[in-house]
Design goal:
This protein has 24 helices and 20 strands. By secondary structure, the chain is of the alpha/beta class. The protein has a seven-stranded parallel β-sheet, with helices on both faces. A six-stranded parallel β-sheet has the order 15-20-19-16-18-17, sandwiched between helices. Helix 9 crosses helix 23 and helix 9 crosses helix 24. The longest helix has 31 residues. The structure holds adenosine-5'-diphosphate and magnesium ion (MG). The site of adenosine-5'-diphosphate has 16 residues, from helix 12.
Length: 707
């Protein structure tokens, strides 16, 4: 029995019958918007272009910003614009030419001024729009300042002085004001939109309901309304992305069993005690424990190991692989390029001196005979450890007992390639997977980008790491000084990288520029030193030779394009000069710089570019990749705000990261809690949430999680 607010008194019949009822009828949102007859063909086409067909589409067409309404005072010659005005005077002018209907002339005004406008061929408007009528007019002002009306409609819109109105993404043929007017006309339909959030959660989060949030955004009543509405809709987006990711992860985890690698440490214990040439950092030790714990479960590990260049991820990777080997299983490490695969293979050898673990390298340039041998030994189980490229996931590569896969720079592998790797497990058992990335991202972004993985971070760099001084340099004097510094280092027996400008348009142009710079340096500034060239257009064999020469100390200077970005480990290299550094992004420069400072000597990084560049300044001031990632994110957000950035994060319509980080954290916790109680979203209070999830992420998002 319904009782009155804060009392035990039941309502009387009359009260109940008179209570406002809000019964949303979502079917009404499917009603079509006015078409060409009402709006004119151009505006109707423009709505099509914007994807606005129904009332529901219109309500979801959210304002991009708020700004001044267009006013009479701001109209300029040669433009077409929409204004909201009041009719002050209206009459007909006869037109002398025969067969033409009289022209209607009106004086219309808003709070900024008044103007005369002409309506053609519609004499009846004099009766329809008497003095005092509020009108929405789309007008065209010709080069002589004459204003003619191209579209008109009565409106209840009031635009007071200094009114801020919602500004909508518009299109050729319909402007923001006109969309606003349509929106106002259909505002009552927000009552028909559905509330996807369960009431209990919405109350606990103190969020307005969805219809209220939409109203607050479209037709705000207070100054705080738009932001309040935006936050509510942002919460929805973030909650849905977390639900989708957490469900995907649960599905992956339950979908396949993995070999349980919980046996005692023997080989790994000995290796950590006697074989490893240095003590582990605390972060590395913790990462080993995370991995060990994952491997001992019967579900496949899905862990992301994030650690910037030089943080020592390979040790963690090798530990995971050796845990498989010591229990009679196989491990594979997959890298995105041949150079990286080779480097990993070499690092692994140096990390386990004296351990006779049979290991092999398999890449696209492995000879046919060698390849046949490796494939045979992988299939028989004789080979415990393999390092390679995509070559590892080709169909004819079969493993006897694959249990652990390490994927380096995971974002470079597509979903299908990872699935192919999963299928290489033994029978129905999927391998455990450790993903590694050197691209540090703040936790908030990680929740969105890698929300379906467990995370381990290596923050601490191994002890004894040498400082890298970074300078932004420009001008001839600094350039001359830079080459002098490079020559000093080279004379002292060190090596240097010279990184050529990024040429986005074409690999071929980039290669050409790199070659020219290589020749110039070889013949002038660095004459007498051994200079080698490396770029993306060289044959794999040539690249390998250049790299090998540089790594072995057979070359003093490596002139390269950004192909040296990841993985190259040459501890003797102590200088890096980057040309036109402002063309690179922060994280790319940080990665590049990670190629130096890896040995026992202090290092120097010279970034040629404008001194005032915020990005270059950030690089000069910080070496912590997580800090730089945060700065990068902030700079990009600012770029978006002032409109210099063309393509924003298209993933969200409303949510803004990092600003909405606290909201994201809350959405994450809520999503986890919802799925804990109701993993399939089967409860009635989750039905609309499930529907919203499928609408955004497709029906796959609702695919069941295996028991
Ligand atoms: P990443 O792959 O994360 O860039 P690596 O695993 O290649 O880093 O390690 C970088 C260098 O640091 C290697 O030469 C490695 O031998 C060394 N290294 C790794 N861990 C330690 C440690 N705990 N102490 C000293 N040196 C280490
Ligand atoms: Mg590495």
């Amino acid at each position: 029995m319904p009782v009155q607010f804060a009392s035990a008194e039941p309502f009387g019949d009359a009260q109940l019958a008179g209570a406002p009822v809000r019964l949303p009828r979502p079917s009404r949102l499917g009603a079509p918007l006015p078409g060409a007859e009402e709006l004119g063909p151009r505006a109707a086409r423009a709505l099509e272009t914007l994807g606005l067909r129904t009332v529901g589409d219109l309500l979801e067409h959210l304002p991009r910003a708020r700004g001044e309404a267009r006013t009479i005072a701001t109209l300029r010659r040669g433009e077409t614009a929409t204004v909201i005005v009041e009719v002050q005077k209206i009459d007909t002018r006869s037109v002398r030419r025969r067969g033409m209907k009289p022209r209607v002339e009106a004086t219309v005004a808003d709070h900024t001024g008044s103007t005369r406008v002409s309506f053609f061929n519609q004499p009846w408007l004099v009766q329809r729009y008497p003095r005092g009528t509020r009108l929405l007019l789309t007008v065209r002002i010709d080069e002589r300042g004459r204003v003619s009306v191209t579209a008109h409609a009565p409106t209840d819109l009031q635009v007071a002085a200094e009114a801020q109105v919602a500004q909508y993404p518009a299109s050729e043929g319909i402007d923001s004001t006109r969309i606003l007017a349509l929106m106002r006309e259909h505002r009552a339909a927000v009552a028909d939109t559905l509330e996807p959030l369960p009431a209990r959660m919405r109350a606990a989060e103190r969020l307005p309901d969805r219809p209220a949030a939409l109203t607050a955004l479209h037709v705000p009543a207070t100054e705080q309304d738009p932001e309040g509405g935006r936050r509510r809709l942002a919460f929805d987006e973030l909650l849905l992305v977390q639900l989708a990711l957490l469900r995907r992860r649960a599905r992956r985890e339950r979908g396949a069993a993995a070999p349980r690698l919980g046996g005692p440490r023997e080989l790994t214990a000995r290796w950590l005690r006697d074989g490893l040439p240095f003590p582990l950092t605390t972060d590395q030790a913790n990462a080993l424990e995370d991995v060990d714990h994952d491997l001992a479960r019967t579900h496949p590990m899905q862990r992301l190991l994030m650690g910037e260049v030089g943080s020592g991820k390979t040790v963690v990777a090798l530990f995971a692989l050796l845990r498989a080997v010591e229990q009679g299983w196989q491990g594979a490490l997959m890298a995105p390029t041949e150079t990286l695969a080779e480097q990993h293979f070499a690092t692994i050898q140096t990390l386990m001196p004296g351990e006779a673990v049979p290991a092999a390298l398999l890449t696209g340039s492995t000879t046919a005979a060698r390849r046949a041998d490796v494939l045979g030994k992988l299939a028989s189980g004789e080979l415990g450890l393999v390092v390679g490229t995509h070559a590892l996931i080709e169909p004819d590569v079969r493993f006897a007992r694959l249990a652990v896969v390490v994927v380096d720079e995971q974002h470079r592998f597509g979903v299908r390639q990872r699935a192919a790797l999963d299928a290489k497990g033994r029978g129905d058992l999927a391998p455990h997977v450790l993903h590694m990335t050197a691209t540090p991202i703040p936790r908030t972004l990680a929740l969105v980008e890698h929300g379906d993985l467990d995370h381990t971070v290596l923050r601490e760099l191994p002890r004894g790491r040498q400082p890298i001084e970074t300078y932004v340099a420009s001008g001839e004097r600094e350039r001359a000084r830079a080459y002098e510094r490079i020559r000093e280092e080279l004379r002292a027996g060190r090596q240097a990288f010279v990184v050529c400008p990024l040429v986005e348009e074409s690999e071929a142009l980039q290669a050409k520029a790199a070659r020219a710079e290589f020749e110039r340096l070889r013949d002038t500034e660095l004459k007498g030193f051994r200079v080698v060239l490396m770029h993306g257009q060289l044959r794999p064999r040539e690249k390998q030779e250049a790299m090998a020469a540089f790594a072995a100390g057979g070359a003093d200077v490596l002139v390269a394009t950004s192909v040296i970005e990841v993985g190259i480990d040459v501890p003797n290299a102590t200088v890096m000069l980057v040309e036109d550094a402002e063309r690179y992004g922060i994280s790319q420069l940080h990665q590049l710089r990670g190629r130096i400072g890896r040995g026992e000597h202090a290092s120097l990084c010279l970034l040629f570019g404008p001194k005032e560049s915020a990005r270059l300044k950030a690089l000069a001031a910080h070496r912590d990749g997580f800090r730089l990632a945060q700065i990068d994110l902030e700079l990009r957000r600012q770029g978006e705000l002032i409109g210099t950035r063309q393509h924003g994060d298209a993933r969200f319509r409303v949510a803004l990261l990092p600003d909405d980080a606290p909201l994201l954290e809350r959405a994450h916790l809520r999503a986890a809690a919802i799925l804990r109680d109701d993993p399939e979203l089967e409860r009635p209070e989750h039905a609309l949430l499930a529907q919203a999830l499928a609408a955004v992420y497709g029906p796959e998002a609702l695919a069941p999680i295996p028991a």
